[in-house]
Amino acid sequence: MEIVLTSSVHAALIAAARAAHPHEACGILLGERQAGAERINAAHIARNVHPEPLTHFEIDPQTLIDAHRAARTPGAPQVLGYFHAHPSGLAAPSATDQAQAARDGAIWAIIAGDAVALWRDGPEGFAALSFTIIES
Fold it and tell me: Which of these, 74, 82, 108, 132, is most buried using a 10 Å CB contact count?
């Protein structure tokens, strides 16, 4: 499946990570699924409600509920996945990410510095995804 990320979302992910530093930024990836492709058109920044935001994240539950409710509207952006930052780590799933993964097929963007990597949270764990950045 082809994964497309708009340049504005790519920039927004990096900006969110910088703004939250030294805490972990987090949020929701929104877009559309088309035949053979997933296009991430928006990143909705969420409040990190984890009690230890320097090293962990938890997306504000109300933000998740609202995003999934909005996605039920015909033509509305779909929840394709989630993002979070590793302020002092790599743009790869940590041991904590691996342990807490839902294995639901969602896309995960992980940001470390200016690096953004996409991962699929599948039944066997996280798998790296190649993606294309397009102008937006």
Answer: 82
